[in-house]
Amino acid sequence: MHSAGRTVRRLGWGLAACMFGLAARAEEPAIPPDDGMKLLVGGDVSGTLAPEDRGFFNDVDYQRNALRLFRASLLAELRGGSHVALLGELRSENLDAPRAYALYLRVRPLPRRAFDVQIGRIPPVFGAFARRRYGQDNPLIGTPLGYQYLTTVRPDAVPGNADEMLAQRGGGWLTRYSVGSAANDAGLPVVESMRWDTGIEVRVGKTPIEWSVAVTQGSLGNPRLSDDNDGKQISTRLAWHFVPGLKVGGSFARGQYLDDAVRRLLNPPAPFRQQAFGLDVEYSWARFVVRGEAIVSDWQIPAIDGPLAVAAVFLEGRYRAAPGLQVAARVDRLDFGRITGSGGSQTWDAPLMRIEAALGYALRRQVQLKAAYQHNWRDGGFVHSQGLVAGQILVWF
Amino acid sequence: MVLSLCASLSLLLVAAQAAQGEARSLASIRGVVEVRLDLPPKAPRPSVNEIGAPARHDVPDRRRSVVYFETAPQGAFEDHERPRAALDQKNESFVPYVLPVISGTTVDFPNRDRTFHNVFSLSKAQPFDLGRYAAGRFKSVRFDHAGVVRVFCDIHSHMNAFILVFAHRFFAATDASGTFRIDNVPPGTYNLAVWTDGRVRAVRAVRVGDEGGIVTQDFVVE
Asked: CB–CB of B52 and A42 under 8 A?
């Protein structure tokens, strides 16, 4: 035990030394710091319309669908000089009462060094898409499957055996299990991009190497405001800007996802965690931007041998065809590992594939119209294939 | 007000002094534009979705103004000079904030930053999109139509600048102290306009006598 403790301490000191070294190298341009108090305000309003999504391919939770959504966001940043800022986002969806989706304090102890600490409800460290989910950063209308599609894993209920799990294949938008909460409810996405987790994160460096680490309350698929299982998530991302235009990031996250209320029903009441590795790449040149991400994740789950593995991959491209006019396309795949039930071996949820193509036109710089066609194929559930035409208007300031 | 400037640029009136100006001395008009307006740096969008503070950037000088003739001498539109000008991208800012050019000018957009930029404009006078390009490279656009061209970067939303395209050569940008000078002005009476931060702020009639020399006209913008 002493040896393990020493190893962890050495690792901790090693990480701290690396971060310090990166921070020392990460000098910002010699621009006079802005020492005054300043309030920055911005916002997004978007309306997205599509026909009924009968297969619930774009559901983001029990009541909302990403292609049938009115969203209004108010962003604010109160800067207190070069060292401290308070940032927040107030958001209303489908005219519901506004809620704070982000609220955190950003501290930069050394104004000319790219070393920042953020505390509160913070942007996710893992991957790249979740930080560009805002309408103007997403050249399409839909969200990648790995960041949106609801699997059949729930944080508040678990199946009693593999057959019970397999019976829910393709029905992540509304699942029910025999252990834990008896309510019908939505499952978890691999990475939740619509809500942010609560905790503390540190970023060092900016170019060419950027490293971020976060300790938060929830898990990748289930970010939380308060802890529900006495387990923290640690997530990290290392990004390398090889040359201007090419950025590669590698991410890791591990955290407990199962609610204490369910864990107490299990024997023994062991912790159950979600773990994920991610790789993201962005390459841009002239009028092209190409982005891709791959996520390999698994959830530990009681009563089933082995973790529930899942792999999400997408590749998207954007081309600015003319001033104000852009075309974009995304190919997206979500695959699941196999488990064995009484009827044999099967993937624990129904694999999916999605393609989406979109045309965007900027009426003005801050007013954009998008039209998209999205087709989904699923190897399970009661709707196996569905094409959707969607339109979106987006205004930002 | 932007529209009014477009109108004044495109509907330039020809002064009546005709060809006799050739026999007379040319003058210079100079002066100082004192901007008393409160023009704080334009605030960027809140960086809520970023891990860590965004990189610091230069703050454009919004007090730089352009002084120009609303009415120009006959023959002023017959210049066939096709000059070049440059609008730099440096420390995530366009330099200068306002660039006046004569129609037919080719403007270079050199990237002097460490990151990519994507310069574009949706202005009716000259829409363009240069795509992304790296430090040390430049792309160019020729501006053939008079008007106001607002320039942005698609990657850095706080970056913006103006290019004012004139159909004649009688214009000048102010320097850091607000001083301007327009040379080789034939005798006549002209309306001299001041444009500051997106609007025409003042117009004065200026008379240039047959004797040439220097005519002084100062402005206070408030």
From this structure: no
Q: Which of B51, B118, B134 sits opposite A212 (nearest CB)?
A: B51
Question: Measured between alpha carbons, how far is B18 from A264 in angstroms, rounded to an integer?
Answer: 97
pLDDT tens for chain A, 397 residues: list them.
445 556 656 666 666 666 666 665 656 655 556 667 889 999 999 999 999 999 999 999 767 899 999 999 999 999 988 899 999 999 999 999 999 999 999 999 987 788 999 999 999 999 999 988 666 789 999 999 999 999 999 999 999 999 999 999 999 999 999 999 999 999 999 999 989 999 999 999 888 899 999 999 999 999 998 888 888 999 999 999 988 889 999 999 999 999 988 888 887 767 899 999 999 999 999 999 999 999 999 999 988 888 999 999 999 999 999 999 999 999 999 999 999 999 999 999 999 999 999 999 999 999 999 999 999 999 999 899 999 999 999 999 9
- On whether the CB atoms of residues A323 and A315 are closer than 8 A, the answer is no
Please check whether residue A375 touches B, CB under 8 A: no
User: DSSP labels for B195-221?
Assistant: EETTEEEEEEEEEE-TT-EEEE--EEE
Residues 25-54 of A with CB under 8 A from B: 28-29, 31, 33-34, 38, 40-42
Helix (H, G, I), strand (E, B) or coil at B56: coil
Cα separation, A26 vs A3, in Å, equals 34
pLDDT in tens, B25-37: 888 999 999 999 8
Q: Give the Cα separation of A95 and B78 in Å (integer).
A: 59
- Answer whether A119's CB lies under 8 Å from A112's CB: no
Per-residue DSSP letter, A13: H
Whose tokens are 């891990």? That residue is B51
Q: What share of chain B is helix, strand, coil (3-state, %, to 5)?
A: 10, 50, 45
Q: What are A276's two structure tokens? A: 């994920």
Q: Tell me how many residue pairs between chain A and chain B have CB atoms under 8 A apart.
A: 112
Name the phi and psi angles at B91, rounded to 5: 45, 45
ipTM above 0.85, yes or no: no
Give the whole-angstrom CA distance, residue A199 versus residue A36: 28
Distance separating alpha carbons of residues B52 and A118, to the nearest angstrom: 7
Please report the residues numbered 181 through 220 in chain B whose beta carbons come closer than 8 angstroms to any beta carbon of chain A.
Answer: none
Q: Which residues of B touch A31 (CB under 8 A)?
A: 56-58, 91
CA distance B128 to B107: 12
Angstrom CA distances, A9 to A136, A203, A212, B59, stand at: 43, 21, 19, 45
Closest CA to A171 of A16, A344, A352: A352
- The predicted-structure confidence for A211-234, as pLDDT tens digits, reads as follows 999 999 999 999 998 888 888 999
Asked if the C-beta of B138 comes within 8 angstroms of chain A's C-beta atoms, the answer is: no
